[in-house]
Specification:
Largest sheet: 4 strands, antiparallel
Number of helices: 4
Helix content: 25-40%
CATH architecture: 2-Layer Sandwich
Structural class: alpha+beta
Shape: globular
Number of strands: 4
Number of domains: 1
Order of helices and strands: EHHEEHHE
Radius of gyration: 13 Å
CATH topology: Alpha-Beta Plaits
Distance between the termini: 5 Å
Strand order of the largest sheet: 2-3-1-4
Length: about 100
């Protein structure tokens, strides 16, 4: 199994409503794209200053399933329409579980 973890930091101009819309759009990826065996996305709880704004964790049965998801036009559309316009920083890692 492959785990995909992404940390997003939004720009200072990204208001709370827009942040919620981004999380909602990301949250629709399992239904719209699929391929994962587990999925979670949510905003930072605000407990520690300096954290990223939002985290996404998705598990895939194998590398091929992850690559199919990563290249899927519906996934890429969510990134282009909702994420990229508000992104200050992004960090990601994929690892075997």
């Amino acid at each position: 199994m492959l785990r995909h973890v992404v940390l997003f930091t939004w720009t200072g101009a990204t208001d709370a409503e827009t942040r919620a819309e981004i999380v909602a759009a990301l949250g629709r990826l399992p239904a719209d794209v699929g391929g994962m065996t587990a999925f979670a996305v949510g905003p930072d709880a605000g407990l520690v200053q300096g954290n990223a704004s939002t985290a996404l964790v998705a598990d895939f049965p194998d590398v091929d399933a992850f690559r199919a998801y990563a290249a899927d036009p519906r996934h890429l559309a969510v990134i282009a329409e909702h994420v990229t316009p508000h992104l200050a920083a992004r960090s990601a890692v994929q690892y075997e579980v």
